[in-house]
């Protein structure tokens, strides 16, 4: 690998925005960073003029589901096709999931997931999902840690993974203070009550999906989870937060709670479920109301919101529209390619600072999941994961731009201000001139628990 100089890019370094030169060493790490135009061009094998671009750390998506199966339905992206979409959108690192099948030991589940992930062209880490067989899985906790997994995913609902608050308390106590958890917070009991009400009314339309998971479902669960977090001293992130009530719990009751959301909750509302193609927007938690959408944007701007992930779980148009019942429509949306362009475009329109943009798309997730400072920042010695975003270019996201396996996207036809122009992963240029240049299997697994980067 040769040395590269990115010169005169607009970046935020140590909290200060300005023009900077950034050197990429032959090792694939960041070398010197200096004021724009001050590093000698003749000292580098390649020089790229980045003066039209914002220069940001490669995105870290802490919540993605590639090559994922729910029952008999599998997502359309595997680790390689999902990687292509990620790189095209400026994301260079993902954290995916390892969920044991019923009766499967953690070591077996991890080995199987590692085999699938060998196809990845992005760097990746894994969460371990505790299932309803968590008591047995806890006996293998050291093996999970030895595999380099340092974050645990818990669900309060879903087949094979529904955990009661008592179950979660047991897990928090076993893992101990400082344990890192990402939790799907929807109250299973209240979901059941609402589902029975809609069943009695003969309702299975797509808008009923929203009505079975109204705001109170998230509010009840987040309040209970926050109380357990404080009691056991764990580090807890609420996955895919969708309601204004959950944000108020963080503000007023538990400032130490970490809050994640996804672009679809910032962009769309439950009115999408009234459309003839409402199944295309099926996701859990479902889209909420306009007040929630605006509250999430306020939180994104004022710092209440910590992480913008995708919950990338893409299905084809046929998979999403083959059923009219919300009960049989697969829930999940893509977002790994559009996350950074969407936030950059909409953030610029709201005068979001570059420091805040970086915090939401890379830095905070890297810190939460133990990847920082290897990932999530521009500093000497860090991996040279860099995205150049041309802030003057406008682009309309169309089907011809899909880099992954998806055949539809909720942002199809949207115009973004700012376009991902170049992406570097460990110093290699993996996206340029509208094309991904990354080989299958060129990504690296990052074992975060042992800090063995």
How many β strands by DSSP?
A: 19
Q: Can you list the strand order of the major beta sheet?
A: 6-9-10-11-12-13-14-15
Shape: globular
Q: Major β-sheet, in short?
A: 8 strands, parallel
Q: In oligomeric terms, what are we looking at?
A: single chain
Structural class determined from secondary elements:
alpha/beta
Supply Rg: 21 Å
Number of helices: 14
Runs in which pLDDT lies below 50 for 5 or more consecutive residues are: none
Mean pLDDT: 96
Share in helix = 25-40%
State the end-to-end CA separation.
20 Å
How large a portion of the residues is in β-strands, by DSSP E?
15-25%
Quick overview of this protein structure:
The chain is 31% helix and 23% strand.
What would your notes on this structure say?
With 453 residues, the chain is of the alpha/beta class. It is built from 14 helices and 19 strands. The protein has an 8-stranded parallel beta sheet. It has a 5-stranded antiparallel beta sheet with strand order 5-16-17-18-19. Helix 9 links the parallel strand 13 and strand 14. Helix 5 packs parallel to helix 8. The longest helix has 18 residues. It is globular. The two termini are 20 Å apart.
């Amino acid at each position: 690998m040769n040395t590269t100089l990115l010169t005169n890019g607009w970046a935020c370094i140590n909290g200060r925005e300005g023009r900077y030169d950034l050197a990429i060493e032959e090792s694939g790490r960041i070398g010197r960073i200096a004021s724009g135009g001050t590093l000698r061009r003749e000292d580098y094998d390649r020089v790229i003029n980045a003066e039209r671009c914002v220069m940001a750390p490669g995105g870290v998506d802490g919540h993605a589901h590639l090559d994922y199966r729910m029952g008999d339905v599998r997502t359309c992206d595997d680790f390689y096709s999902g990687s292509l979409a990620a790189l095209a959108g400026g994301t260079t690192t993902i954290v995916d999931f390892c969920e044991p099948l019923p009766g499967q030991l953690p070591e077996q589940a991890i080995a199987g997931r590692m085999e699938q992930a060998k196809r990845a062209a992005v760097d990746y880490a894994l969460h371990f999902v505790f299932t309803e067989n968590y008591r047995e899985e806890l006996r293998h906790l050291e093996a999970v840690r030895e595999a380099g997994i340092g974050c645990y995913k818990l669900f309060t609902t879903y087949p094979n993974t529904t955990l009661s608050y008592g179950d979660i308390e047991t897990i928090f106590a076993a893992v101990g203070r400082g344990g890192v958890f990402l939790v799907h917070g929807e109250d299973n009991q209240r979901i059941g009550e609402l589902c029975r009400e809609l069943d009695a009314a003969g309702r299975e339309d797509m808008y009923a999906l929203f009505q079975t998971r109204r705001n109170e479902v998230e509010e009840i669960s987040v309040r209970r989870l926050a109380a357990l977090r404080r009691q056991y001293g764990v580090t807890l992130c609420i996955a895919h937060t969708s309601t204004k009530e959950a944000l108020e719990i963080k503000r007023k009751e538990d400032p130490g709670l970490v809050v994640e959301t996804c672009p679809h909750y910032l962009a769309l509302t439950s009115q999408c479920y009234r459309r003839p193609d409402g199944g295309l927007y099926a996701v859990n938690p479902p889209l909420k109301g306009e007040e929630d959408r605006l509250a999430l944007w306020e939180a994104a701007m004022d710092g209440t919101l910590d992480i913008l992930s995708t919950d990338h779980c893409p299905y084809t148009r046929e998979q999403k529209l083959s059923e009219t019942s919300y009960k049989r429509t697969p829930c999940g949306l893509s977002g790994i390619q559009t996350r950074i362009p969407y936030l950059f475009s909409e953030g610029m329109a709201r005068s979001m600072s570059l420091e805040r943009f970086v915090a939401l798309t890379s830095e905070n997730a890297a810190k939460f999941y133990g990847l920082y400072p290897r990932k999530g920042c521009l500093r000497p010695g860090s991996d040279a994961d860099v995205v150049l975003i041309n802030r003057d270019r406008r682009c309309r996201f169309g089907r011809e731009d899909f880099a992954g396996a998806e055949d539809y996207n909720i942002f199809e036809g949207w115009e973004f201000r700012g376009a991902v122009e170049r992406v570097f992963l460990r110093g290699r240029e993996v996206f340029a001139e509208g094309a991904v240049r990354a080989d299958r299997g060129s990504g690296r697994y990052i074992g975060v628990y042992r800090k063995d980067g």
